[in-house]
Amino acid sequence: MRAFWALLVRDLKSASRAGGSLTTLLAFYLSLGVILPIAIGPDKPLLASLGPALIWTGVLLSSLLGLDRIFVADHEDGSLAAFRHSRLSLSTISFVKLIVHWLTTALPLIVLTPVMGVLLTIDLQTLLSVMLTLLLGTPAIAALSLVAAALSVSLKRGAVIAPILVMPLAIPAVIFGVGAAKPLLGAGQAETALLYLSAMSLVFVAFAPFAAALALRLSQE
Amino acid sequence: MNPSAKFPQITLNIKGLQCKRGERTVLAGLDLFAGSGTFVAIRGPNGAGKSTFLMAVAGLLPFSGEVSIALADWDYDEHPLHEQMLFVTHLNAIKPELTVRENLGFWADMVDGSRDRIGDALNAAGIGQLADVPAGAMSKGQQRRCSLARLLIADKPIWLLDEPTSALDKSGDKWIAGLISDQVRRGGLVLAATHRPIVPDDDINIFNLDLEPV
Hints:
The structure holds two protein chains of two kinds.
Chain A (H helix, E strand, L loop, with lengths): L1 H17 L2 H20 L3 H22 L6 H5 L2 H5 L6 H30 L4 H28 L6 H24 L7 H31 L2
Chain B lengths: L9 E12 L2 E12 L2 E6 L6 H9 L5 E8 L13 E4 L11 H11 L7 H8 L14 H9 L9 E5 L7 H16 L3 E5 L12 E5 L4
Parallel strand pairs in B: 3-7, 3-8, 5-6, 6-7
Antiparallel strand pairs in B: 1-2, 1-4
């Protein structure tokens, strides 16, 4: 457990001191919130009805920006090789990386979502349900990002390829995420979508660290 | 474990080690037998496979042939074998945004070392006064010293060192030679790939492994 916390604390400290990348992430997310209403035009009801879909797409795209931070630094400075003789297995290390990625990418985006709500003129009820679906659905996206980051860690243009790997796989999460947040869904349908979304997150989070560990092992050869 | 205690008996037995990087064969049929209290100096020109050899022994590369490492009277369930090695690659594995002390504290936790020994390790490395400086603010040589100080915060019987003296000055070379001598005297096993010769103390058992490009 000592090594587990040490890695978690180191990565969070490292992320907070390196700075910059979180600001970039949030600025990108917010600029989507500024550009989309301009592109769609001054049709408020249309904008509000598209709201959940726009927010989910925004979160998905923005979170991909943080993807190359997951493993690249540790690969380049030799930490990843040194981890092989440490107390933690590569899958445990990947699990810690998943937690850190979610905390430093998805969580700040969710916290900033009310601002997006104002920009996209979404009512409070819808905003709250979008935030709930994001909270339940982003772990799945983070898990997919983890595997993609591990697969592309030793590639020169990994940061470009990895998002393309994630996007098609993230489609189910987006469908259920947006579906559950739609204001005019029939009774019970929103709950079902929420359950599917949560199940997806649980399954992806459970399997991703093992897949990532395998990918890391192969990429170091 | 106290820093002067002897290590258990180690045997490293390598038979017909073959290793490929991509399509290229880098090591072709290499044999080595070494045990406790030996310093194996891996020598050879660039591209001779020194790093590849270390990575294969460290278990980071697939290979054909046999590499067996054994510790006498060892409880492998309690202390897995891979945790008994410390591999300092040509990369330093330190985070520039964290302080020297934080970096070493992290590695102490990761390899079951002791945070209490960080102060002494840094003094020995000659960067004791820089403990609270961000590692990125130090020179290349000082960063290398910080990375090598990892050897002193844990008691690992097997050291794998890839060009440990790169970026180090004369006093750094001497420090490394002393470290290796102490480790060997304690019954440890040190494998080091070196360009510039490392000259440990006279009473140390040295085995020179000369590699040639295949």
